[in-house]
Design brief:
alpha+beta, binds zinc ion, two-stranded antiparallel sheet, elongated, 2 strands
Length: about 70
């Protein structure tokens, strides 16, 4: 049996946000995409609530568009 420390906290990892978690995303990805947010967790995967997940999705979409335009 492995310890499941990660399941202990079920709130968003963004500092100042305590909403319920919707998705787990790689921390580095979040930092690259949402440079305005600070994560309270230092683990590789950070948990995002639906609002921050939406923001992340929006921002990464924009990124992809820019990448495509740059080609
Ligand atoms: Zn949040």
């Amino acid at each position: 049996m492995s310890p499941n420390k990660e399941n202990n906290t079920a709130s968003c990892d963004v500092v100042g946000c305590s909403l319920d978690v919707k998705r787990s995303i790689s921390s580095s990805k979040i930092k690259n995409t949402l440079s305005s947010v600070t994560l309270s967790s230092s683990s590789r995967k950070a948990k995002l609530c639906k609002i921050h997940y939406k923001e992340f999705k929006k921002a990464s979409k924009k990124d992809r568009k820019l990448e495509m335009l740059g080609r």
